[in-house]
Amino acid sequence: MARPSHPSNLELQALSVLWHEGPSTVATVLETLPDKKDRAYTTVLTVMQSLERKNLVKRVLVGRAHVYEAAYAQEVIVQRATHDFLTNAFGGRLGEALLAILSAGTLTPEENTNIERELQRHKTMAAKKTPAKKAAKKAVVKKVAPKAPAKKAVTKVAKAPAKKAVKKVVKKAVKKVAKSAKKAPAKKAVKKTVAKKAPAKKAAAKKAPAKKAVVAKAPVKKAVVKKAPAKKVAKKAVKKAAKKA
Q: How many domains are there within the chain?
């Protein structure tokens, strides 16, 4: 439901009649207005029509009479008006407002009993709220206090393995460096042995000319091949001699 419009002072008087007397006609509202001032019927009719436009009252046709009924309960409208009055006239100080209201008139025994009952209810509510607030604060303190050491313990536990892991990594690195330092002389010895073997390869290279000398002897075979024609000549001579015989 939308927030109701704020009624004027005279409209509030007309609404108070509807709240206490129930649905009423314009004539009934005119006769029952709290300030008891003389007003014309048309004035009150205009007020009721204004309340109808603001959706604060509902109009129902009963026979030939127009009956007006309040659209909102008294608490809804009065709460806003009371808040404005308390803020504007007393700066929000409820005690001063109550004393001012009580000094404005006289309470009936029934009203006095109702007010005393309401004041007692406020006292009990205030007493219940105070221990509840203290208990809530204690609970918050208890919940927060144990958590702090827990966080410290967690950080200690988390940091300890991290330090151990770092130490292990450092130790492994140192061992690797030591092993590599020991293996370095062995590599140098290998290089020296390789260097020593190098002259042997050179000596083998020097022996290579011997093969060249063998190759140089190859022309001798060629010379032997060249003697082959002499054999052919001898054979031809033998054949001719045989023919003559």
A: 1
Is 100 domain-assigned? yes
Nearest to 4 by CA among 42, 56, 52: 56
Is residue 89 included in any domain, yes or no? yes
How far from 191 is each of 94, 177, 182, 186, 205, CA to CA, in Å? 104, 21, 15, 9, 21
Of all residues in the chain, the percent with pLDDT exceeding 70 is 55
pLDDT digits (tens, 9 = 90+) for 208-238: 444 443 334 444 344 334 444 556 655 676 6
**SS3 annotation, the chain:** CCCCCCCCHHHHHHHHHHHHHCCECHHHHHHHCCCCCCCCHHHHHHHHHHHHHCCCEEEEEECCEEEEEECCCHHHHHHHHHHHHHHHHHCCCHHHHHHHHHHCCCCCHHHHHHHHHHHHHHHHHHHHHHHHHHHHHHHHHHHHHHHHHHHHHHHHHHHHHHHHHHHHHHHHHHHHHHHHHHHHHHHHHHHHHHHHHHHHHHHHHHHHHHHHHHHHCHHHHHHHHHCHHHHHHHHHHHHHHHHHC
- Retrieve residue 181's tokens: 């330092």
Residue 22 lies in a domain: yes
- The answer to whether position 211 is within a domain reads no
User: Which domain range does residue 14 map to?
Assistant: 9-113
Alpha-carbon distance of 16 to 10, in angstroms, equals: 10
Largest CA distance in the chain: 196
Confidence category of residue 189, pLDDT binned at 50, 70, 90: very low
- Say which CATH number the domain at 54 has: 1.10.10.10
